[in-house]
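quick one before i forget lol
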Amino acid sequence: MISLAITGEPGVGKTTLLMRLLNMIRSEGIHVYGFFCPEVREEGKRIGFKIIDIATGAEGWLALIPEKARSLGYNTRMYRKFVGRYIVIEDEAERIGVAALSNAEDGFLAIDEIGPMELAVEKLRKAIIHALVSASNFIVVVHRNMKDSEILKILREKNTQWVIITRENRDSVYHELVSRVRNEILTLKQLNT
């Protein structure tokens, strides 16, 4: 069983590491499902975050700065949750995220990230909890200050290995994790034949 939680400061390469691992997992013919939430920049400034279904590519907005939300036609009065300076676009986050977590098909769960924006959407939070409980194998990126006791309890119960990424260790950690995940996958394939 593979259960990894990647964490670290912003900009150290957590998402890059996750995506490289997922590409390797896919190359072994394993279905990957879940979502990732890349930042979106315009003219060098971060304007928000998308939420993208890993399996289907469907996407929507997770959060936007208010002025960008208004310029895209969102009625900012109907969105009540803020994380920092971002309005959480709950309906899109819920629609994309919950669907992405239901694409299991005995696959490999990946979430980037479990953090304040994702957890601000209650139906998405519940779907994350359900997906973590149900998944046999997963890699998740967890916000460095995540304090959701229910999710932390699940990760403990699943004997999740925590990996702290820094700029200094990211390459060596990647090679170590690729080797470990590849060995686990080969073992799983042998058990299933």
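fyi The chain has a mean pLDDT of 92.
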